[in-house]
Amino acid sequence: MKRKIKFFVLFLVVAGMFLCGCGAGFVEGAEVIDRSKSLDENIAENRMGEILIETTPGAKVKVGQLEHEFIFGSCLNVMLFSDMEDFKSRGSRFKYYKDPKGPYYYANREQYLKAFKENFNYGVHQNALKWLVTEREQAGDVYYTAAEKVSQWCKEQGIGMRGHCIFWEKEKYVQEWLKQLSDEEAKRRMEIHCKEVVNRFKDHIHEWDLNNEMVDGRYFRERFGEEIVGDMCRWAKEADESARLFFNDYDVLVKHDNYEDYVKQIEGYLAKGYPFDGIGVQAHSWWVGKQEVKRVEDVLDRLSRTGLSIKITEYVANYGVKDEATRAQKLREFYRVCFAHPGVDAIIVWGFWEGSMWLDEYGFYDRDWKLTELGQAYRQLVLNEWWTNFEGKANEKGLCKVPAFFGKHNVEVNGKKREVYLHKSDGKVRVEMRQVK
After folding, report:
1. pTM for this one?
2. Residue pair 318/359 in contact by the 8 Å Cβ criterion
């Protein structure tokens, strides 16, 4: 009888740990959303700080935001960076560069880059860094020129980037020439590729999707064993010891099995000591239903308990509906819950112009550069509702406290201006402008 009681007590303890998330993979103090507060209250708590301006009593104060610290990004289509010679010279050997719309892309390049800068502060190559593209036909025949143009432009504009992707686990995205090599030679070529791409871009790209889509894809692991993931980590770190390595997968928010398998996979590799730093949630689609917000909150909370950074890496507003107003409302809901969650560091869309997107009906701009309802919803949130715009006066002590979203701001006192940066890690910043009259 005593043994049964002890077993029952043990069962309750283990069950309790599971239900409260205190089992394997749980990190004490992990950032989770506060369910007792509204999403807007969570946003104010997690995404805003204070700019304290010290000046003369009654001074006129204006504070306007210049950029977000939170990452609002998009992928970039390399075709919009390639000149006509790229299409001619590379098209014969690289299938990706045989796109007949080359002149069309070229004609829209200036508008494309202008719209990107107006809407986003972060970028990622859409396809140009995938191994299937950079070394498609045969070992050693590599092409990075167009991808480097994208990276260089972002660097010149002060726009950060992430790397997508070093390897891709799905067999259909593995080059035929690699499949024909012996295991020993294939691993040697994998190591060469990993170190080459990370080293080549390490002056601007410090974060990489290491082995894309490992929940459904298993090519490399089935061929070389699970330890190949550890080899990939080691190769990447040898090329750039500061590189941050990410998991990246799809259907995490919409399919329970994918979510469960993803969590198990992440916890398993962390338990092996593999140096992963973040979790990519692709978010290609998000179903329409009453429990959407709660579902996303639950998944983000669980992923956050791993202690890793979370990024929404490939968002597409694909909700299985044609009505643009419904899509726009769903986008607002999705962005709001992700921006409210303290464990999420970025929301990156998988394209913004319908003239150069994977799923071309979900752009923020149509082919004629007219803002769509999705684009209007995005800009209303990111560049209006979540954008600091303050006017007021200093109090009798010469102080003016301004609630502000984290990021760069222009502070103006009696017509004199100064740029300041409000970091989330600091929570507040003090600006002394007492001599301004």
Report:
1. 0.90
2. yes
